Amino acid sequence: MFKYFLYCVIFVTNIELMKSQDIEALKQKYAQIIMDCAQKFPIDQSDIEQLRSRQMPDKENVKCLFAYPSRLKKAEQFTDACKFVNDENVSDGSKGCERAALIFKCSVEKAAE
């Protein structure tokens, strides 16, 4: 279940990142994703204290929260690899369905990389 959630987040993130050309907007999107992740995987004060003392709490939520930066880096690499989709001609205009299908196709092709 968690695996599918992550795929969904990465897919939606990549669609949004492809739309964004502005670096500041991109940073804000990353920050929002991390905040959303923190809501899904909340940590408490004792977790924060352990982290300050350079110890990793043995809780799934904390581990998942720390997994996000590497997933975001992979999402950025995916975005760069599939950026060409924005330049493809599609027949449904701004509806975005065909472009989403192209993004999916690209993601399947690039998944092995």
UniProtKB/TrEMBL annotation:
Record-linked SUPFAM superfamilies: Insect pheromone/odorant-binding proteins (SSF47565)
Gene3D superfamilies xrefs: Pheromone/general odorant binding protein domain
Domain of life: Eukaryota
Pfam families: PBP_GOBP
MF annotations from Gene Ontology: odorant binding
Protein's recorded name: Uncharacterized protein
